[in-house]
Amino acid sequence: MSQTAKQPSGLLVAVYDFALSRVSFDFFGFLVMAELKRREKGLEGVHLVLVPADGDGFHPNLQYGLDQKKWRLKNIIIDGCWLLPSCRQLSVYQDREQARAAIAGLRGPVFPDGYSIENPVPLWQYGWSIIEAHKGNDPRVLEASAQARAYIAEWRRAHAGERPLVSLTLREASHNAQRNVELSTWIEFAGWLEDEGYFPVLVRDTETALLPRPAGLGKLADFPTAAINIDLRLALYEAAFLNMGVTNGPSQLGNYSPITRSLTFATGDWIDVEPTPMLNHSVDRGDTPSFSSKCQKWIWEKPAPDILKSEFENMARALSGLAEGSVQPLDEELRLPLIEVARRFHKTGEWDLFEAAAADALEREDAAAEVHYLRGLAARARYGGAEEAGGENWLAHFDAASQALDAAGKPAADAARAVRMRAHMALLTGNYGAAENWLLRLSELEPADGWAHAELAQARAEQGRAGEAIAELGATVAGGLESSECMEQMARLHQAEGRLDEAVIHYRRAIDLDAGAAGAYLGIGMIFEAVDQPAEAKHIYQLAIDNGAGNPLIRSRLDKVLAQPD
């Protein structure tokens, strides 16, 4: 489809650019953000613009072949845009030059802010919706069409009768198979639902929906049409008494509706890796995403039959008495302070999301000191510690943080956090005497803080007192505080003195204590590189990535090792 001749007035021009955006259910994260921007600007509707990438037109996602990408463009992106009631117009362009000329002639503000063909802006990540909900904005804006709802109502009357409908969405994908369901478990659970008087309907993965039915399904109902038609899928989810499934694209779609009820189970690496990769979206282990109602819950346990049954019974009791199709408000108990959201994005290196959450925290909360401190750390991490690079000066951020701390006079409840910030900034700026004093105070406030003891040792070592540093760490460990931070610091001290075998032992102990200790993986890997053992370095870097500790520096070291000739 190309641009229509005349564009209605008052439309937000929302550009989804496949140069940086995926042809997947992630699209709906972008669509809801466009809707929130439309409402903020008071515009009539959304004009969705799809811009192809160079080459085959799509984001270079190796999970899908070209034919599947084309199918997804039609059946997820193009059909899915009409699930946004305010979507008034859709334009799909043949190439980037055609899109450039067309966008220049469109009336209305362009979304995302700052977008251009030369500078595409991705805004599909799940974390953007998470931030909006923590700000109090509701991104659950999708609706099935009236006709799709009518079709589902007819199907339901014919098949379920008066029994409450429970949808079971199954993940059986060929990519990231560790997140898939165990089909037998869900079939057993569906049989239990039938015995309890419910009508379970299985929605199999799109990859398997049209294959022959597994023998174990027996007379259980399945609905392959919902796996193919996205409008009917959402209408089914809206009509269900409860929707159950695992963390995947379809569950994300369903949870962007304000009337669906759901139990979503984290599976695979989402629960097996620590910290959970979902933290990249500011969703920590045990959390339900912030844009959920009390009728939409995440479960962080493997969906075994007994867990499925108990969680269903708990939610069924909570739903008792709620009118079918009623809009439920966001659960206010899920909202976090925006500075906590910023901390999470900072921890995982999601810098654009971090900066957005940090800016909102600075505007809405009493968090100036920590925002400037985290921005300083972020600038230092992103630009390799250069004093000024990428338009940012990390020292200037630290100065602003110190001034804010001086001006705020932090209350007692925040004393430890304020002291920690001051100590860390002193360490990073080479003021080791001041750092030692702050760390001694922090150790008094938080005696069990392993980081404080580890950094106190570093401050003393940097002042030429390595013996005191090692003694400090030894006493700390002997006192029962064998933390990952202390082990990692002990390893660094041994490494600095050339005792590499002892350093590796302590780094490995740090990893035993915390599988996400990125610095320990990096330390071992760089030792192996230094002693010309690239295979061992490759193994440790890959292990870090597999355990969710693969920060950008580790990934760059792995690329360097892989580039070496055998």
- State the CATH architecture of the domain at 146-323: 3-Layer(aba) Sandwich
Side-by-side strand order of the widest sheet:
7-6-5-8-9-10
Strand content: 5-15%
Q: At the third CATH level, what is the topology name of the domain at 146-323?
A: Rossmann fold
Quaternary structure type: single chain
Name of the CATH class of the domain at 146-323: Alpha Beta
Structural class: alpha/beta
Which stretches are low in confidence, meaning pLDDT under 50 for 5 or more residues running?
1-6
Determine the CATH superfamily of the domain at 146-323.
Answer: Glycogen Phosphorylase B
Q: What is the share of helical residues?
A: 40-55%
Specify Rg, calculated over alpha carbons.
26 Å
How is this fold's topology laid out?
Blueprint: E1 11-17, H1 27-41, E2 45-51, H2 66-80, E3 87-92, H3 96-104, E4 110-111, H4 126-134, H5 146-159, E5 165-169, H6 183-195, E6 199-203, E7 221-222, H7 224-228, H8 230-239, E8 242-246, H9 249-255, E9 262-265, H10 269-272, E10 296-299, H11 305-319, H12 338-348, H13 351-364, H14 368-382, E11 388-389, E12 392-393, H15 394-408, H16 415-428, H17 432-445, H18 450-462, H19 466-478, H20 484-496, H21 500-513, H22 518-530, H23 534-546, H24 552-562
Parallel strand pairs: 1-2, 1-4, 2-3, 5-6, 5-8, 6-7, 8-9, 9-10
Antiparallel strand pairs: 11-12
Helix pairs in contact: 5-8, 12-13, 12-14, 13-14, 14-15, 16-17, 17-18, 18-19, 18-20, 19-20, 20-21, 20-22, 21-22, 22-23, 22-24, 23-24
